[in-house]
Amino acid sequence: MESFKALQLHKSDSGPDVRWVDLTKDDLMEGDVVVRVSHSTINYKDGLAITGKAPVVRKWPMIPGIDFCGTVVESGSPEYAEGDEVILNGWGVGETHFGGYAQYARVSSDWLVPKPSGFSAAQTMAIGTAGYTAMLCVLALEKNAVSPADGPVLVTGASGGVGSVAVSLLAKLGYQVIASTGRQEEAPFLKSLGAAEIVDRAEFSGSPKPLSKERWAGAIDVAGSGTLANIISQLQYGGTVAACGLAQGMDLPTSVAPFILRGVTLAGVDSVMVPRERRIVAWNRLETDLDRDKLAELTQTFPLSEVVELAPKILAGQVRGRVVLEID
What we know:
The protein is an alpha/beta fold. It has two domains: about 5-115 and about 300-325, Medium-chain alcohol dehydrogenases, catalytic domain (Quinone Oxidoreductase, Chain A, domain 1); about 130-270, Rossmann fold, CATH 3.40.50.720. Helices cover about 30% and strands about 25% of the residues. It has helices at about 45-50, 120-145, 160-170, 185-195, 225-235, 255-260, 275-290, 290-295, 305-315, and strands at about 5-10, 15-25, 35-40, 65-75, 85-90, 105, 110-115, 155, 175-180, 195-200, 215-220, 235-245, 265-270, 300-305, 320-325. Strands 3, 4, 5, 6, 7, 14 and 15 form a seven-stranded mixed β-sheet that branches. Strands 10-9-8-11-12-13 form a six-stranded parallel β-sheet, sandwiched between helices. Strands 1-2 form a two-stranded antiparallel ribbon. Helix 4 (about 185-195) links the parallel strand 9 (about 175-180) and strand 10. The protein is globular.
């Protein structure tokens, strides 16, 4: 059987042993659909897996890559036929099941969604889990009735993957977007995506007060910890923050005061185990609401061979926007 290339992580005492290996389809894990992978991407979680900075990988050896897009080449599922273009985000792929950093992947058909016809394969990975998560956050704000007329919406980590797509989406939907970043040199880039104002992330680094001046009708936060606590204390009456990340930390040093005195909402956003129906809703909204020109502005393209060098850079906040990885 023809062999193919894959990036594989092996467990060692000093962190993941990263290897480029030759595999065959017989080496792939269980599933009822085999996909010829054309594109993937790198997210913060992928950076953690490759560098070993956090225990993302829970089964060894592992092919990382929590996202991929490609074409079905074998199917035992009535949902998909040979030639169908599909997307996968999450479901533990790249953590407990071989992921997208290989030319082929065998997965459960339940984990796949059809590629929207309005996107190319590369564009779906320019979006990836980060952009799909941004859309889930926007849907969470809408579910809690945060409208453009209510006031400004804050986006933290705005120059990163989730943040940059969130800025673009919110701006196109008519929101006044305030972009928070620690890299002021990215201000022109963020304004080109639609940000009305740039604020320094240091504004949210102080010790949180139970209640602060009301500033935000809504927020999308990727940081967690003190940043999220400060945002909660600054939400307007009835405001909502969609929390989807923990780049600063998993703790939340806040009080119940904002919730019982201002009626604010903390909406948790998970992207890994979201039911298929909600995934399709999110992807359909991305197809209609995401500006393709803005997506191109925030996207860089690399061959898969460079992903190991990109991993520490994404953890250090040195990667702007989104990255598309070409598998071949």
